[in-house]
Amino acid sequence: MSEPSDIALFLDFDGTLVEIAPRPDAVRVDPGLAPALERLRDRLGGALAIVTGRPVSVIDDFLAPARFDVAGLHGVERRVAGVLTGGGAEDHPALRARVPELLAMAAGLEAVLIEDKGASVAVHWRLASAADAERAEAAVKAVAADLAGSYRLQLGKAVGEIVPAQATKAHAIRAFLERPPYAGRRAVFLGDDRTDEIAFASVAEDGGLGIRIGPGETAAARRLPDPEAVRALLYAWAAGGPIDPDTLPPA
Question: Where in the sequence is the signal peptide annotated (predicted)?
């Protein structure tokens, strides 16, 4: 069993803490989630952060009035101890110049959504027909290819997101681990998507533990079936239960 002071806990949001929704704004947050995360953060001496593709401000809205350390936009934004750095749309003129093209593409396809996050842009096709989903994926791949070098394409579950090339959850977690209260602790990262696989591999290289949520091949060592199981685990830890992630089912 790990001591709480040994663990730095990093949590993806969509598909991990909450169930995936048809639209990004339709996510339902369990009323007990934020209070439990606050209690668990206290138990971990502050070493709890959310690592997500969402902007920090959106996570704040979902978990209000609680405020957590957050790496947003896959690490483009990072807030630690209340200080937010990165994430300004003004720093990404090349990407901003291509947003109208993606918006025009989506306007011609039913149920394809553009999520403009300022420093990154996501194209969602979860609700689209197979043909429109194929067109949307091709369009975002084409724009990403034109921006290659400065930006990269990150594919997830029915979504393609163009993000700054240096932005990964792996980099974000390593940045947290360089400063208190995370420094010197073992990283434990929970995520559900292929966008999390780079971080699983990185955490393992550093002696930490990745926990994959849901099915699929993974670099994580452990697995939980769904966000409901994640919440049950975190609620138990927040209530003072033993923190022993190495005993979770193998991936």
Answer: none
* pLDDT at 177 exceeding the cut of 70: yes
Per-residue pLDDT tens digits for 94-109: 999 999 999 999 998 9
Distance CA 80, CA 78 (A): 7
The single residue of 6, 12, 42, 226 carrying the catalytic annotation is: 12
**Which pLDDT value is given to residue 167?**
83
- Beta bridge mates, 49: 10, 69
HEC per residue, 184-239 = CCEEEEEECCHHHHHHHHHHHHCCCEEEEECCCCCCCCEEECCHHHHHHHHHHHHC
Q: Please state, for a pLDDT cut of 70, what percent of the chain lies above it.
A: 99
The structure tokens listed for 127 are 């609700």
Cβ(245)–Cβ(40) below 8 Å: no
Residue 12 backbone dihedrals phi, psi, to 5 degrees: -65, 165
* DSSP classification of residue 249: P
Going by pLDDT thresholds of 50, 70 and 90, the confidence category of residue 226 is very high
Ordered domains of the chain (ranges, CATH):
4-76+167-247 (3.40.50.1000), 89-164 (3.30.70.1020)
For residue 61, indicate whether it is catalytic.
Answer: no
